[in-house]
Structures are given as structure tokens and as C-alpha cells.
Amino acid sequence: MIVIKTKEEINNMRKAGIILASCHQEIAKLIKPGITTDEIDQFAEKFMLEHGATPEQKGYNGYRFATCASINDVICHGFPSATALKDGDIVTIDMVVNLNGWLADSAWSYAVGKVSDEARRLLNVTEQSLYKGIEQAVAGNRIGDISNAIQVYAEAEGFSVVREFIGHGIGSQMHEEPQVPHYGPPGRGPRLKEGMVLTIEPMLNVGAWKSKLDSDGWTARTIDGKLSAQYEHTLAITEDGPFILTKL
């Protein structure tokens, strides 16, 4: 069942989104060769707690961290670790903020030092593909219109779109209906209505779209070891169009 949110509930989620976006803004200043994703994870948790929020991911199905930190060929759900980031790496930091029971979810990919032209283009196209999807997130359209806009743009730019991990509804629960794939034909799926709140979170790969899972049961990598990037926002469907809740 798709849960329609009131304007007050969307406003509560927006407050969580502001904390999340502010945290990403501060993380961007920390990203450099030599820092560890453990340190970033500890910073993010401390930032949330200092702003009256909690990390929703921590404890979710036994997950032990406040963030997911996915480096280079890791698509998503990478564990923060004590391994230092290196010049030329790319890293995705994904987190969910809980503020008074209302959630916001956003992932950003970051360049570490000087990255290759290929990595830079992957980052740029992945971010733009997110916004191509958001443009379609208007009342009256269907989920498939979001999905198709992302896939058409990404593949025209020469990148593949991950199938196994998708966006979703969100509210007081991290994963609600509807599911939001980042691929597929337009005009399919649930019709978008005012008051729906979704995450759109395309993951694009330099090589093949398929993934493989590490033995930890969480970390998903590209099947061919090539780079992957992700950008994600939480947004509400409003009478005035898509309202991004996780952007300052």
C-alpha cells in the first residue's frame, strides 16, 4: 500500500532532509586522500546526534554502521572501514536520518583527490541521471516515466544502469511502496499522486550492470570490477512539482 503523506508530515521529513543535506555538505569538506570511511561514519553519526536525529541504518537488519561507504567498484551497501581513501578513488556515502520518527534518505558520490576522466564523467552523468528522473516525478505521470528517463539518458552516455537495487517510498519506514526502478519502459507502474514521497537513487556502472555480493552479505560490487557511482534524493510529489527534501 502506498502511504500518502500530509503537508505536515512532508514538512517533518523536510526537517530530516535538511539535517542530512547539511551532513553531506560537511562530509564533502572531509573527503581527501588519507581519511578513512570509519572516520566519515563516526563524523556522520555525531553530526546527526548533535542535531537531534539518529542514524536509521544503524541496527537495520543487523547493519552496524550509521552510513554505507561504497568505494570504486562497490555499487552500494559497503561497510565503513579503517582503510584510507586514496587519490583517484570515488566513494559513495549513503545515509538515512531519523528525526522524531520521520526519515530522509540520500547518497552522494565523491571524488577523492584527482580522479580519472572516466570517473569524473561517471560522477557527472550519474548525478544528471538522477535529475532526469526527478523531472518526471510529477502528479499524473507513472513510476515508469521516472525509470525510463534515467535509463535512456544513462545508456545514451555509455553507462549501464544497475537493476538489482532500486528506489522506494519512504516515510516513517525506510522502505515503503512503491518500488522505483531506474530502468524500464515509460507509462508503466503506479500513477504518481500528490503526497507521495519517494527516493530516486540511480546507480550507474562503467561496465556491465550486474552485481555480485561479498561474503559479508551486504557489499554489492560490479561483476567486472569496473567503477560504479550513485546519487540519491528523497522527494515529495506536490501540486507544484517535485519537492526535493534532501537538498539545501
TrEMBL record:
Domain of life: Bacteria
UniProt-listed Enzyme Commission number(s): 3.4.11.18
Cited SUPFAM superfamilies: Creatinase/aminopeptidase (SSF55920)
GO MF terms, alphabetically ordered: initiator methionyl aminopeptidase activity
Binding-site residues, substrate: H77, H175
Annotated a divalent metal cation 1 binding sites: D94, D105, E232
Reactions catalysed: Release of N-terminal amino acids, preferentially methionine, from peptides and arylamides
Binding site for a divalent metal cation 2: D105, H168, E201, E232
One Pfam family this sequence matches: Peptidase_M24
Keyword annotations: Aminopeptidase, Hydrolase, Metal-binding, Protease
Cofactor: Co(2+); Zn(2+); Mn(2+); Fe(2+)
UniProt cofactor note: Binds 2 divalent metal cations per subunit. Has a high-affinity and a low affinity metal-binding site. The true nature of the physiological cofactor is under debate. The enzyme is active with cobalt, zinc, manganese or divalent iron ions. Most likely, methionine aminopeptidases function as mononuclear Fe(2+)-metalloproteases under physiological conditions, and the catalytically relevant metal-binding site has been assigned to the histidine-containing high-affinity site.
Record-annotated Peptidase M24 domain positions: 12-239
Xref: HAMAP family: MetAP_1 (MF_01974)
Family of the protein in this entry: Belongs to the peptidase M24A family. Methionine aminopeptidase type 1 subfamily.
NCBIfam families, sorted: met_pdase_I (TIGR00500)
Task of the protein: Removes the N-terminal methionine from nascent proteins. The N-terminal methionine is often cleaved when the second residue in the primary sequence is small and uncharged (Met-Ala-, Cys, Gly, Pro, Ser, Thr, or Val). Requires deformylation of the N(alpha)-formylated initiator methionine before it can be hydrolyzed.
Record note on quaternary structure: Monomer.
UniProt protein name: Methionine aminopeptidase
